[in-house]
Amino acid sequence: MSFTPAMRTRLSIYALALVTFLTVFLFIQPSFLDSFSTTPVINRFTRSNTHYYAPPFQPSYLNVAVASMFPFHEDVYLPIVQQMESVLDPHGGRVQVYSPIPLQYGFQEIVDALELSREDIINPEEFMPALQSTQFGVPIDLVLLGTCEYDFRQWGKEMLAIWDTRPEDEKFEVACVGHNVSDVHFWREDLAGWAQRGVLRILAISEHVEQAYHDLLQDLGDQSRSADVGFEYVRTGVYVPILDLPLRKHRPNSRGVISQAVVQGFFDPDRRDYKRLFNELIKVILESPRIWGYQEYPERTGSFDAILDSSLPPFQLNLIGGGYLEVPPILKNVVRIHESLDYPEFYALMEQMDIVLPAFASNTYFDNVASSTVAMAIECNVPLLVTRRFRESYNYANDERVVVTRPQGLSEIEAIKLFRTHHFSPSPGDLPQYVDDVNRMLSDGWNRPMKGFETLKSEVSSRNEDVVRKMLSGE
Q1: pTM of the shown model
Q2: Which residues share a beta bridge with 260?
Q3: To the nearest whole number, what is the mean pLDDT of the chain?
Q4: Which of 52, 173, 254, 467 has the fewest CB within 10 Å, making it most exposed?
């Protein structure tokens, strides 16, 4: 059968009409629209009629205030701000930071380079007036305090009063970043007040600290024996603040030997065991100075002098932090102190290191406090020399891609000596398990590829985003 031009024209018109009808019919079906997994959102701040499509996740809180009076910890809570803004952006949400300005130690340069906050940071004195009235023209519905232990002491009672006077449909959620569980006594009254209202969330920067907060809250709940206290309903989470620094892709050390080790943190002997490190260094260098790149100990100078033409570069222990620390004169050429560095200088120096030594002086950093050293080492792509106990506490760093594991019976300095000599001779009586662990440590080596760090950081970032989504949705 042949079709005339007129018939073909009519068939084309019928086909177009049928396609149009089916398209309209399908689009008005709810199930079909749902299959796109998108939802129209109106920007509540501009009140514009512009619609844009967002993923299925729907935040309960769109107007967030991140506030702190503490002059530090911006490197902890501003990464949270960055991810909050990223998650809220498709939904028309906004985040405002209230923090002491200018930021300490040149951190504004890092904020600008990494775009950690889209809005200009505002003086914290403006936080309370905004909470009492509006922010961006609408009431604040979520508050994140940068340091629980400090900021609740500054604002806790006033925040409670504001919360109590707000109408039921304008209450706000409260979250805070907890750094030291042992300091809860500083804000115990505020903790109880917010627990009673059922709107508090505590974020820890490591898994063991979250567990410590969880256990404490359960203990407080058992002790209270009161139905209206609510300690057991305080939510906890882990947010590991690792910055996405624009680091070099290849480690500067091409000599294959550990020559630059670093201990980072305030120069407090209760935090880092400097005395033990110094004594061990003196002992091992006196025993075998050439292994460490130094001349025989000369009585006349009273200090170790480097061998200028040694095939092994001299070992140096870098101490980065602040405060007073007395270094034995014999180590004046071995130990380098870098005090009160700005953040850009700090990151540039850390990037040059071969290995990070936590050197914890007590159990505190395994139980109640999270050391910033761990996150800083990972964000600077420098491996940490640690024990299995360390890995069990800092679960996010429990990964061969970023740590070198030594047995507890082998100190940091002894481990570095073995890496410099590439030789291990078991002593009579050494446990087979210990010998196996040392041999495995040496076999695995101390250097870690950059790709492993970058992959782990991506995984941590993904988990962090999940925590942010839960916080913004009230889960």
Answers
A1: 0.84
A2: 316
A3: 88
A4: 254
Residue 50 — very low, low, confident or very high, per pLDDT cuts 50/70/90? very low
Per residue in 162-200, pLDDT (tens digit) is 999 999 999 999 999 999 999 998 999 999 999 999 999
In terms of DSSP bridges, do strands 142-145 and 200-204 run parallel, antiparallel, or are they unpaired? Answer: unpaired
Distance between CA atoms of residues 284 and 301, nearest Å? 19
- CA 461, CA 468: separation in Å to the nearest integer? 10
Domains of the chain, start order: 51-239 (3.40.50), 260-459 (3.40.50.2000)
What residue type is 238 in one-letter code?
A: V
On whether the CB atoms of residues 383 and 450 are closer than 8 A, the answer is: no
**Percentage of residues in the chain having pLDDT higher than 70:** 86
Residue 239 is which amino acid?
Answer: Y
What 393-400 contacts at long range (C-beta under 8 Å, 24+ apart), as own/partner pairs, is 393/206, 393/207, 393/208, 393/365, 393/366, 393/367, 394/206, 394/207, 394/208, 394/370, 395/206, 395/207, 395/208, 396/206, 396/207, 396/238, 396/240, 396/460, 396/463, 399/452, 399/456, 400/444
Tokens (6 digits) for 389: 């106990």
- Give the separation between CA 321 and CA 354, rounded to whole angstroms: 18
The one-letter code for the residue type at 394 is Y
Q: Tens digit of pLDDT for each residue in 295-305? A: 987 777 789 99
Q: Count each helix (H run) and each strand (E run) in the chain, helices first.
A: 16, 14
Cβ contact 221:210 at 8 Å: no
Question: Binning pLDDT at 50, 70 and 90, where does residue 36 land?
Answer: very low
- The string of DSSP letters for 342-358 reads -HHHHHHHHTT-SEE--
DSSP secondary structure string, 11-67? HHHHHHHHHHHHHHHHHT-HHHHHTTT-EEEE-TTT----EEEE-S---S--EEEEE
Burial class (CB in 10 A: 0-12, 13-18, 19+), 415: buried
